[in-house]
């Protein structure tokens, strides 16, 4: 089981300058890798003549390609010599080297191995500036972005309605920006079971206070609001905590703003609603108003494309909001999982649609609250906290859960864009927070939605009755 601990590196920390420098070098290599891929990929378009930058990259490849292939042949020869020293029955067949090919219209996508070999042979400054393996991890980040681009482009041609526009080529990082650095356990070591040592520096980080027991897997340095976060990933051989769960007990969670999380289960217990006032206060009364004020001061007298769009004050404001929301979501997710344990719930179903915050139909003020709340952060916290106890967490699309009647067990169709539904719903939402069923029974609207989210996954979840669901919800405040 993987566990991650975070260490904040502020400007006064002795490791700050190291983090700042190495993430800046990572940005340089990120852009250099992206530059070479873009020049090769775009060279085989409609224009037959190469642009100056494209010609520069192709000249570099032509110059070093023979040496790159010579290294591959030499590597194969060494492997064969090593096999010859073994007894006949233990020898393995070593295939001929797969030589690199010069880019062409048929092979216009450079592989990671090709570009990695090119940077080594050509002694690329950005590549050599970073420690070994760290530079390779940065390059892999770029290639992963390009693979995601091709996958999105392929899917876009089949399902264009899923996207807001045609996927674009991966962009360069800002000139003065920073990029995440990943260190494997081969280049980043733990000394004396207490100190974390990074390459190319004598400075160490004391991690003894964190109580990390396990095998170090990876260390990440992540730029965060003008500071840096060091994430230490540990592999712990810990068994799941033994708790008594009932396979028939299922919990559904409907996320929102006024009601941050509405929790319903099929155990016969009363629903629980976690109030969203604390989160709304952090997000709107504090953050949104402050940000609007400082942004207006920053942009006063500037043209649409002139001047700065961000400042240190705005950065500190973003950081403060992030930590406040993170604290509130940790508390909410903890109480959520503890409630599931108390009711012996084995499965938690959370309603979450893909692109659910795009073009959402809400009042202007509610829309601003909903879109800017990072509900995904809360979902992830519930997932990893529940995993410790063996509780399954499933994300489920929640189309028509607010319209269908839980009490009347209405059909729950799946929404498809452009495809009309013939479903008829027994009840309706009469006002905010109130749903009226076919028999004029009124229940909380979010409770109705949370119960229907359960039915999306387990249709027979309420076969024994819904006595607890129709009772008055318990209100829980997050402080």
Could you characterize what this model shows?
The model has no long low-confidence stretch (mean pLDDT 88). This protein is of the alpha+beta class. It has a six-stranded mixed sheet with strand order 12-11-8-9-10-16, with helices on both faces. A four-stranded antiparallel sheet has the order 1-7-6-2. Strands 3-4-5 form a three-stranded antiparallel sheet, with no helix packed on it. Helix 1 crosses helix 5 and helix 6 packs antiparallel against helix 7. The protein starts with a strand and ends with a strand.
How are the SSEs ordered, and which strands pair?
Blueprint: E1 2-9, H1 16-41, H2 52-84, H3 112-121, H4 125-129, H5 134-158, E2 181-184, E3 189-191, E4 195-197, E5 204-206, E6 215-224, E7 227-235, E8 246-255, E9 259-265, E10 272-275, H6 277-298, H7 312-342, E11 345-351, H8 364-372, H9 375-387, E12 392-396, E13 428-431, E14 434-436, E15 442-443, H10 445-457, E16 474-476
Parallel strand pairs: 8-11, 10-16, 11-12
Antiparallel strand pairs: 1-7, 2-6, 3-4, 4-5, 6-7, 8-9, 9-10, 13-14, 14-15
Helix pairs in contact: 1-5, 2-3, 6-7, 7-9
Unreliable parts:
none
Sheet of most strands: 6 strands, mixed
Number of DSSP helical runs = 10
Helix vs. strand class: alpha+beta
Q: Number of folding domains?
A: 2
Give the neighbour order of strands across the main sheet.
Answer: 12-11-8-9-10-16
Rg over alpha carbons: 28 Å
Mean pLDDT: 88
Shape estimate: globular
Cα separation of the termini: 31 Å
* Annotation, overall tally of beta strands: 16
Order of helices and strands: EHHHHHEEEEEEEEEHHEHHEEEEHE
What fraction of the residues are assigned to beta strands by DSSP? 15-25%
Helix content: 25-40%
Oligomer: single chain
Pfam families: Cas12f1-like_TNB, OrfB_IS605
Protein name: IS200/IS605 family element transposase accessory protein TnpB
GO molecular function: DNA binding
InterPro entries: Cas12f1-like_TNB, Transposase
């Amino acid at each position: 089981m993987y566990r991650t601990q975070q260490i904040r590196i502020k400007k006064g920390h002795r490791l700050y300058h190291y983090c700042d420098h190495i993430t800046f070098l990572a940005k340089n290599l990120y852009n250099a890798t992206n530059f070479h891929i873009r020049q090769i990929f775009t060279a085989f378009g409609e224009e037959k003549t190469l642009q100056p930058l494209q010609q520069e990259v192709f000249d570099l490849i032509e110059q070093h390609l023979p040496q790159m292939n010579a290294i591959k042949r030499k590597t194969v020869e060494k492997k064969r010599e090593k096999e010859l020293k073994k007894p006949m029955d233990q020898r393995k067949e070593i295939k001929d080297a797969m030589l690199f090919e010069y880019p062409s219209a048929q092979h216009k996508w450079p592989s990671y191995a090709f570009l990695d070999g090119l940077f080594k042979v050509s002694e690329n400054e950005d590549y050599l500036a970073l420690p070994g393996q760290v530079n390779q991890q940065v390059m892999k980040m770029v290639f992963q972005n390009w693979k995601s681009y091709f996958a999105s482009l392929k899917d876009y041609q089949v399902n264009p309605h899923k996207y807001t526009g045609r996927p674009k080529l991966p962009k360069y990082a800002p000139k003065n920006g920073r990029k995440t650095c990943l260190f494997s356990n081969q280049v980043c070591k733990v000394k004396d079971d207490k100190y974390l040592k990074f390459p190319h520096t004598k400075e160490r980080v004391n991690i003894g206070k964190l109580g990390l027991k396990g095998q170090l897997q990876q260390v990440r340095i992540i730029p965060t609001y003008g500071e840096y976060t060091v994430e230490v990933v540990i592999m712990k051989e810990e068994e799941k905590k033994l708790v008594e769960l009932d396979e028939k007990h299922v919990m559904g969670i409907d996320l929102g703003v006024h009601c941050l999380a509405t929790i319903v289960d099929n155990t016969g217990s009363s629903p629980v609603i976690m109030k969203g006032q604390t989160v709304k206060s952090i997000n709107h009364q504090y953050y949104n108003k402050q940000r609007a004020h400082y942004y207006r001061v920053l942009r006063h007298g500037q043209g649409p494309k002139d001047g700065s769009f961000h400042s240190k004050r705005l950065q500190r404001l973003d950081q403060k909001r992030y930590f406040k929301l993170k604290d509130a979501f940790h508390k909410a997710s903890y109480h959520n999982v503890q409630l599931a344990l108390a009711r012996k719930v084995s499965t938690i179903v959370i309603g979450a649609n893909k692109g659910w915050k795009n073009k959402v139909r809400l009042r202007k003020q509610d829309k601003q609250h909903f879109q800017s709340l990072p509900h995904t952060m809360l979902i992830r916290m519930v997932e990893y906290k529940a995993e410790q106890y063996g509780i399954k967490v499933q994300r489920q699309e929640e189309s028509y859960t607010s319209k269908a009647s839980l009490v009347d067990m209405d059909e729950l169709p799946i929404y498809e864009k452009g495809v009309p539904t013939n479903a008829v719903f027994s009840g309706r939402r009469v006002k905010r927070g109130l749903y009226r069923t076919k028999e004029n029974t009124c229940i909380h609207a979010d409770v109705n939605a949370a119960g229907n989210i359960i039915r999306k996954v387990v249709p027979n979840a309420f076969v024994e009755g819904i006595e607890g669901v129709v009772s008055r919800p318990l209100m829980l405040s997050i402080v």
